Structures are given as C-alpha cells and as structure tokens.
C-alpha cells in the first residue's frame, strides 16, 4: 500500500464507487450543506437529514455494505473501510449520513441478523430504505467501560416487558424513531455468585414512559447525542431482540469488526488534516518564503505523513485478514490504539503549524483536533485497548 492523500483504486467495483462517492461528496452534498448553512455545531433535524438519506440511497451508497437482498452490494470489510475513509477525508459535515453511520444501516449493523421477520419488516428494512432511523442505547452514567454494571432493568409482565433506567450517549437519538436498548433482567445479578442477565429490546421512542432528552454536548460541539429515560416503559414481548438473556452478546457480538471499522473514519479525518496542513505550509509565507521551506516544518509534516502511512497500513492489513476469515481480535485492539494515538499526535502538530488559526473556533483544523481527541476514548479507551492486546499476547504460544 503506497502513500497518497488521494488514493487510487484499480480493482472493480471499488474504483468506480470511489469516483462516484467523491463526486457526490465534493459536489452535490457540499452544495446542500452550503445552501442550508450546516456546520458541525448545527442542531440537525430530520428535515436536514432525510433528503441526504434518500439521495444517498438513490445513488447506491446508503447501506451499500448490506447483502443484495437488502439493496446493498455485499461489500467486503476492506471495501467498506475505503468508502468510510473517503467520506471522512471529504470534510463533509453530513458525511455520517451517506453510508448510514448516523441512525442508518451501519448503526443497526450486525443486529439485523438477530431480528425476526416482523422486526425486519417494521423496524430495520425501513431504516435500510432511509424511512426510519435508530439509535443504540447501551451506555449509562456509571456503566461505560464496565458496561455490565448497568442499572437499567427489564421485567417480564405478561405479554410485555417493563423497562426502567437512564441511558446516555445514544448517538442519533435526537432524530431516531426507535432505540435498541440493552437492559439487565430484573432480579438477576443482585446476589453474590448470581451473574446478571441482559436482554436487548426495540423501543419506540414515542412509547408511554419513554423520554428522549438532550444529551451532553461532546467536545466536538456536535448535537447528535440523547439521553433515553425509561420510566415503567412497556415494551411488547415481540420487541425482544434475539433470546432473553443474550442481549449483551448481541450488543458486543461484532465488537472486533466495529473496532476496526471506526479506524478508517479516524484515518480519513487525519488525512484531511494533513492535506489542509500541507496546503497551509505551501501558501503561508514567513520572511518572504513558504512555511514549507523551513526545515523544522518539513520535519513535522514528514513525521505526520509517516505516522498516517503506518496507521493506515496496519489497519488495512488487519481488514484484509478479517476478510480472509482470520481471527484479528488482538490486531483490532492494536489498530484502534495506534490509530487513535497517532491521529492525535498528527492533529496536535497540525494545530501547531496553523498557529493562531488552529486555535480559532470555526477553523476546520481546530474542529478536527477536538474530534480526533475524542477517538482516544470513544469505542474503548486506549487503556482498554492495551488491556486487550496484553490479554491476546498472554495466549500466544
């Protein structure tokens, strides 16, 4: 894999897909954002997003990773990662809605295979068509890395379940129709030696006893999070996702894949930052010469490019192994750790090179710095990744 800020792809169908995706991102979608004045701090509404879902679906991008029977092209993990990287590298605010990351098919992900025919028809296929949106509600205030300490409970009552609890950081919650909620079965895990049992449910967000509240605004400034408050919320038994007591397995079942597929998005954003930085060093003049003529700056951008190349190479190597059916749990931990830490170092240097502009709100580099800083914590902290790597090494022969 050679280094490039705009990679070229020769093999079909990827070459044509990337060309069409770039045209959409840089043309029509950029115009749409500009016309509506959309920035990373915009409070997005369904009116903003639904046209993007529908148009992306028309163009074949929304849910493109899915099997053909669901309207997708059955992409490999590597092919999907390439498209995710391109979306992030474009700098489009609404990029998260093009492939379906924000409330769409990518948010639902592997959960589709646990759904009944009725659940597919009522909940998930409308999501695939861009008609409905979902969010995933697992995290609680005191149940993040230690997710099994959650307090949200579900109790069977006749032909329904009664849910009580408070979920936080439900991404896409502000514009979702339903949530995939994981709850501890009431009465389980309350005594020593009794393991808690967890189940997953499809909860309509307009159900009695369910409240969607404004979530905390992350340091990226995006308004995409909600709290889901459940107060004796009654959920029909047919909305149980999978088997009772198997909810945590459903929630964490594709964690290795998710961990790897978050990396291309961070790589794309970092690629964007390096591109912007090189543009600045070529055009910003100091003492009558471009900034890039200074050896100190040359060394900085050389290190930035080298780290990006290393992070990207290891990520795609792991994705290729995953496509071959190999066990890449340890490599996924390594990729998440290295991509997060190297991306942060690259963005830190980008801010340094941009000077006061890099410290100014409204400057894209300043926004990307905040966004990338979050990646060292989101989807598992760097410390959690190191734990996973060490655990994997312990079992090596």
Explain what you see:
It is a single chain. This protein is an alpha+beta fold and 397 residues long. The protein has 3 domains: 14-101; 134-247, Butyryl-CoA Dehydrogenase, subunit A, domain 2 (Beta Barrel), CATH 2.40.110.10; 254-394, Butyryl-CoA Dehydrogenase, subunit A, domain 3. Helix content is 46%, strand content 15%. It contains 11 helices and 10 strands. It has helices at residues 14-36, 46-58, 77-90, 105-108, 117-128, 247-252, 255-283, 295-323, 329-354, 364-375, 382-394; strands spanning 134-137, 153-157, 160-171, 178-185, 198-204, 210-214, 225-236, 240-241, 285-286, 289-290. Strands 1, 2, 3, 4, 5, 6, 7 and 8 form an 8-stranded mixed beta sheet that branches. Strands 9-10 form a two-stranded antiparallel sheet. Strand 9 (285-286) and strand 10 (289-290) form a beta hairpin. Helix 3 runs parallel beside helix 7 and helix 9 runs antiparallel to helix 10. The longest helix has 29 residues, at 255-283.
How is the biggest beta sheet arranged?
A: 8 strands, mixed
Proportion of residues in helical segments: 40-55%
At CATH level 2, the architecture of the largest domain is Up-down Bundle
Instruction: State the CATH topology of the largest domain.
Output: Butyryl-CoA Dehydrogenase, subunit A, domain 3
Low-confidence stretches: none
Give the topology string: H per helix, E per strand.
Answer: HHHHHEEEEEEEEHHEEHHHH
Count of β-strands: 10
- Total domain units: 3
Percent of residues in beta strands? 5-15%
Report the CATH C-level class of the largest domain. Answer: Mainly Alpha
CATH superfamily of the largest domain: Butyryl-CoA Dehydrogenase, subunit A, domain 3
Derived structural class:
alpha+beta
Radius of gyration: 22 Å
How does the overall form come out from the CA principal axes?
globular
Count of helical segments? 11
Mean pLDDT equals 95
What is the CA-CA span between the terminal residues? 30 Å
Keywords: FAD, Flavoprotein, Oxidoreductase
InterPro entries: Acyl-CoA_Oxase/DH_mid-dom, Acyl-CoA_Oxase/DH_mid-dom_sf, AcylCo_DH-like_C, AcylCo_DH/oxidase_C, AcylCoA_DH/ox_N, AcylCoA_DH/ox_N_sf, AcylCoA_DH/oxidase_NM_dom_sf
Cofactor: FAD
Domain Acyl-CoA dehydrogenase/oxidase N-terminal: 16-131
């Amino acid at each position: 894999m050679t280094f490039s800020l705009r990679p070229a792809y020769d093999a079909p169908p990827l070459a044509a897909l990337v060309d069409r995706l770039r045209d959409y991102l840089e043309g029509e979608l950029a115009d749409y954002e500009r016309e509506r004045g959309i920035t990373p701090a915009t409070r997005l509404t369904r009116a903003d997003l639904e046209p993007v879902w529908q148009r992306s679906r028309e163009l074949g991008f929304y849910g493109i990773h899915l099997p053909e029977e669901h309207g997708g092209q059955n992409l490999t993990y590597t092919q999907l990662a390439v498209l995710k990287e391109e979306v992030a590298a474009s700098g489009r605010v609404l990029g998260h809605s093009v492939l379906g990351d924000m409330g769409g098919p990518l948010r639902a992900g592997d959960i589709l295979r646990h759904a009944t025919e009725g659940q597919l028809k009522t909940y998930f296929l409308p999501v695939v068509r861009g008609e409905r949106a979902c969010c995933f509600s697992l995290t609680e205030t005191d149940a993040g890395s230690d997710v099994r300490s959650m307090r949200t409970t579900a109790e069977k009552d006749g032909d329904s379940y009664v849910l009580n609890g408070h979920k936080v950081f439900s991404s896409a919650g502000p514009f979702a129709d339903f949530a995939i909620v994981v709850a501890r079965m009431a009465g389980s895990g309350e005594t020593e030696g009794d393991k808690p049992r967890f189940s997953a449910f499809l909860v309509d967000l307009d159900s009695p006893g369910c409240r969607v509240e404004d979530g905390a605004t992350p340091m990226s400034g995006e308004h995409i999070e909600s709290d889901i408050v459940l107060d004796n919320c009654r959920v029909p038994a047919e909305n149980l996702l999978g088997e009772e007591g198997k909810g945590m397995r459903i929630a964490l079942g594709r964690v290795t894949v998710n961990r790897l597929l978050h990396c291309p998005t961070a790589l794309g954003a970092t690629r964007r930052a390096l591109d912007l930085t090189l543009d600045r060093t070529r055009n910003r003049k100091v003492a009558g010469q471009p900034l890039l003529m200074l050896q100190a700056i040359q060394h900085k951008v050389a290190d930035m490019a080298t780290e990006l190349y290393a992070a990207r190479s290891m990520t795609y190597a792991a994705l290729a192994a995953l496509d071959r059916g190999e066990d890449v749990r340890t490599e996924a931990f390594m990729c998440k750790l290295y991509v997060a830490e190297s991306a942060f170092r690259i963005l830190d240097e980008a801010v340094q090179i941009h000077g006061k502009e890099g410290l100014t709100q409204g400057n894209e580099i300043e926004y990307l710095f905040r966004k990338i800083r979050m990646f060292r914590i989101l989807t598992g902290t760097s410390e959690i990744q190191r734990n996973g790597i060490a655990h994997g090494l312990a079992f090596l022969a």
